[in-house]
Design brief:
Elements: H1 3-18, H2 22-29, H3 44-50, H4 53-76, H5 82-95, H6 108-118, H7 120-137, H8 140-159, H9 162-187
Helix pairs in contact: 1-4, 1-5, 2-4, 3-4, 4-5, 4-6, 5-9, 6-7, 6-8, 7-8, 8-9
């Protein structure tokens, strides 16, 4: 099959999968408009505060596994650029969800799913640091960022995958910037 068709189908599939905002779906199932609650973000943290911890775990797992599944499919393709296209599609779908009028979330759980699929051993090696960071910092978002950054660094050192590192670093900066914007919005600052 033509590479352009395969990669185009991957890009579209990744975007559509990324557009599924599990926090929005699960919250609506429980009669909660997550967009009107706390941080106005459809992520697991807001779901934990607004709906419940069990529902937040479901959101986190569903978001992470959605991204990991797309990444595993991309990794099975022979085209070297497939992983980069999958990462971009998942994150663009998360930030600009087709199903929610191009309104989206921050994408931390999906970002963690991408990191897990890219390097499961590196992810598992760094995950205990994330658990310690949650306990110490009381900030799951920052802890998740530590896990993702550590996994990416580990992957780069082992596999010398510089193009993917550059894309993931850019995506990580985007996630961080979006989370800072969200915090300012919640605090009422411009």
């Amino acid at each position: 099959m033509n590479d352009a068709i395969v990669l185009g189908a991957l890009a579209l599939s990744a975007y559509l999968a990324g557009s599924v905002l599990w926090g929005d779906l699960i919250s609506r199932h429980y009669g909660v408009d997550i967009w009107a609650m706390d941080t106005h973000n459809p992520g697991a943290g807001n779901v934990a505060r607004s709906v419940g911890k069990a529902q937040a775990v479901a959101v986190y797992v569903a978001d992470a596994m959605t991204a990991a599944t797309v990444m595993l499919v991309a990794g099975a393709l022979p085209q070297p650029e497939a992983r980069i296209i999958a990462i971009a599609g998942i994150l663009l779908g998360t930030f600009f969800s087709l199903y929610r009028g191009f309104r989206g979330g921050i994408g931390l759980a999906k970002f963690m799913g991408l990191a897990l699929a890219m390097n499961p051993a590196g992810f598992m090696l760094v995950a205990p640091l994330g658990i310690l960071a949650v306990a110490w910092l009381k900030n799951p978002g920052l802890a998740g960022g530590i896990v993702v950054a550590g996994t990416v660094l580990f992957s780069t050192l082992i596999y010398h995958d510089v193009p993917t590192l550059v894309l993931i670093a850019g995506a990580g900066i985007t996630v961080w910037a979006r989370s800072r914007m969200q915090a300012r919005f919640v605090e009422g600052r411009p």
